[in-house]
Amino acid sequence: MMHITMEHIFAHISFTTLSLATLFHWVNPVHRMENLKGLGRKSMTIAFIRTTGFSIIRRVHSEHLPLSNLYESSMFLSWSSSLLHMILGLRNQNDWLGAVTAPGAMLTHGFATLGLPEQMQQSALLVPASQSYWLMMHVSMMLLSYATLLCGSSLAISSLVIPFNGKRNSPISSTDSGLSTRVFFSKTNSHSYTQIESDSRNTFYSLSMNSRKCQLIQQLDRWSYRIISLGFPFLTIGIPSGAVWANEAWGSYWSWDPKETWALITWLIYAIYLHTRMTKGWQGEGPAIVASLGFFLVRIRHLGVNLSGIGLHSYGWSIWK
User: Which end of the chain has less neighbouring CB within 10 Å, N or C?
Assistant: First the structure.
């Protein structure tokens, strides 16, 4: 029972620190406090260490990799998201990246710790089909792809929801440019100088805000593309390795199981996204919408299929039922 208590403590400590990290990363871009930024990084590091400790304890006790059900896979997904968040923090100092990536780790961890029933959080013996070395190869690759693709797609969604006047691929919109032209070339008289000065001040403030928003949107778009480019190979490796494992376990490489089907659809969507970005130079709202669609497809594949309890991949759910 000691190991169960330790798992419980580690899981709840990591969730608390993830919540604090999310709070610090949300507040920091607004108030620009270096202390908050440091606290956010430390909180995320503590959460990562505690989640690692949780996985080690469960691995030692269960004698297999803790990837066998929805609870364990969600904890690994949260761990992967935390690791990706820390790596991004080292590579980029943009405060908004942390504000977008931290909630993903926190929400996934919260779903596993607080959302799943107690029975489903318990470790269980592997079903015969899962007693294979392909468990590590296939499941770890798929979950790493989930973490990276969800992170990249979250950045794409964030770039869409930022209010911006004008084209998202240019720092100054035509509307603002026209407004400034009207201000400086409007007819002036002795009664309008004050109004023109006020309009000019407002115009330059609007231009400055639009420019900063455009720069932020472009940064989010670039990082979204880079992270999705990293996650797509994981998905590409995970699907064929799963097919080989399926042939060993069920005698067929492909059975059009719900998870297999959704995996193929997800792969096609991200393949389209990357192909158009690399060959056509497609940027802006179009690819961001495609990446956003990929976000929901990944969630459907990871949660929707498992919670539906149908198909050959619903081991964790069927155990609880």
Answer: N
How far, CA to CA in Å, does 110 sit from each of 44, 55, 105, 115, 191? 14, 16, 8, 7, 61
Give the span between the Cα atoms of 124 and 240, in whole angstroms. Answer: 27
Each residue's pLDDT tens digit, 8-47: 899 999 999 999 999 998 887 767 676 777 888 899 999 9
| Integer CA distances (angstroms), 87 to 23, 151, 305, in order | 19, 12, 30
Q: Compute CA 120 distance to the chain's CA centroid, rounded to the nearest angstrom.
A: 24
Distance between CA 195 and CA 201 in Å, rounded?
10
Q: Alpha carbon of 255 to those of 5, 130, 239: distances in Å? A: 40, 17, 13
Per-residue tokens: 121: 């959080």
Q: What is the total count of domains within the chain?
A: 2
pTM score, whole prediction: 0.80
Domain extent, residue 305, equals 134-166+218-315
Q: Assess if residue 177 is contained within a domain.
A: no
Q: What is the pLDDT of residue 121?
A: 84
Same domain, 145 and 60: no
- Chain centre distance of CA 80: 10
* E strands, the chain, in order: none
Q: How far apart are CA 146 and CA 295, in angstroms?
A: 9
- What's the first-to-final CA gap in the chain, in angstroms? 24
- Confidence class for position 321, pLDDT limits 50, 70, 90: very low
Provide the CB-side half-sphere exposure for 239 (13 A, CA).
Answer: 21
Distance between CA atoms of 99 and 86, rounded to whole angstroms?
12
Q: How do residues 122-134 score in pLDDT, each as one tens digit?
A: 877 777 767 778 8
